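Q: I have 531 residues here and want to know how they pack in 3D. Can you give me a structure?
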Amino acid sequence: MKNLRLCQSLGVLVLMAFSALVHAQVYTQIHNFDWHAEGANPVYPALLAQGQDGNLYGTLDTQLSSDGTIFVSTVTGVVTPIYFFQGPDGNSPQSGLSLGFDGNFYGATEWGGSSKVGTVFGYGGSGLTSFHSFSDGSDGAYPWATPIQAPDGNVYGITNNGSNPGKIYRVTQSGAFSIIATAPSQTVAPMILGSDGNLYGTTPNGGTFNEGTVFQLTLKGKLKIIHSFNDGTNPSGPVMQGVDGKLYGTTTWGGTTGVGTVFVMTTGGGGYKVIHNFQGSDGTNPTAGLVQGSDKFLYGVASRGGANSVGTLFKVNTTGTSFADLHDFATATGDTPFGTPMLHTNGTIFGTTSHGGSQNPAYGVLYSFTNGLKPFASIVVIWSGKVGTQVGIIGQGFSNATGVKFGTGAGTFTAVSDTYMIATVAAGATTGNVTVLEPGGNLTTPQVFKVIPSLSKFAPTSGPVGTSVVITGQSLTQTTTVTFGGVKAASFTVNSDTQITATVPTGAKTGKVAVKTKGGSATAPGTFTVQ
């Protein structure tokens, strides 16, 4: 009898666990787009952005009385158009939006403007600012890709086709426009900001085999192709940087079955590997990028394939040893997902489909997907800085926050709202993830914030090999290297976060004293003279 009761109890527990798992994994069509009121049929890249208020922001193609819209949606799917394009200010905003550290959103329109070949714009509290109307001259034309703000405050983006395709541009906050590089080919894929401060992007053509590339771009405009595709081919979506620092993405074609892949590589171009080949039943032709959940799995969508041949939502681990088709899209609840999903800081995945839904005609839907992913906080654009740097963080529960930690060190903060705070790097902060301390559970950023060191002085200022030199500065706890005239010191001691004692090494040259930490490098004023 005891064994029977034990089996019954175990059975109940297993059933409860299974029920909880099923309940946690839910696809929900939260809004049907209405062409008459809002706009319709979002196609790639169609990025959704989480605003400082915790709502979702995006763009939609042409609407009954306008040439497209910017919309805001609550996380429950209450959609409100907040801007209507009229042509001179842009037409057909396919890009979606990105959030800048200044709180503004940035986007582009495929058409419209003074030459009717596209615009790049910002949208914020003061309304829409049209930064540039493309002319299809040396500035390119038809920008589909979402522009992004970099830590220098400038906005960077890339054009698609036209007479001069694939032009990478920079726009300052004052509206000064310039072309800084030419991509390997035209592209609709947005660039991303890497943790090293470089931009990364993809093109569907170009490269050694003319089957697509991944490129690296410095903010000064130096472009380098770091991978040329010839197995998986023709990527349409952006790459994303995982918590391991590697780049992950999809190709629309190629692979063992010819219908697309998921790949991984380093930011230097090494270690390229296809980690999943789509088979058709699990999806085909992914045009979107990926997001990474708290479970470290990569989540994405395929635009076609699956049980209904109109797309899938999937997850795959970073080694490719575990893959799951989590949802088969269907016309009744939204089909043909072209845009990259967005992972909200509440742990829910949101995205759009270009077709389907319960309306007739079907103009596409806004959907949510839950899979038990943990809530988190996210740094907005500024991923490095010295003590005193202010960093915007989005999340939730900030009204009850009790503290902020940069790595293992302290920070200060001001909760602007329950979903947005400004955190300041304090003395003693270290390079690492940022943690927001909350009574209901701490929130950690997936991004690592790099605390840049600074040096103020050293003493003595001269001496022979073997001299003990005291170096003073800030954020020195994680020092890995000390150099005298470019020669590494074989011996040094980190006395505190503000002081290092180093021994002048054999072979040292008269020159600068410098340190390198996990967060960056710093050089002291003055010159050390080797006697």
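Q: Anything worth noting?
A: The first helix runs from residue 2 to 24. The mean pLDDT is 95.
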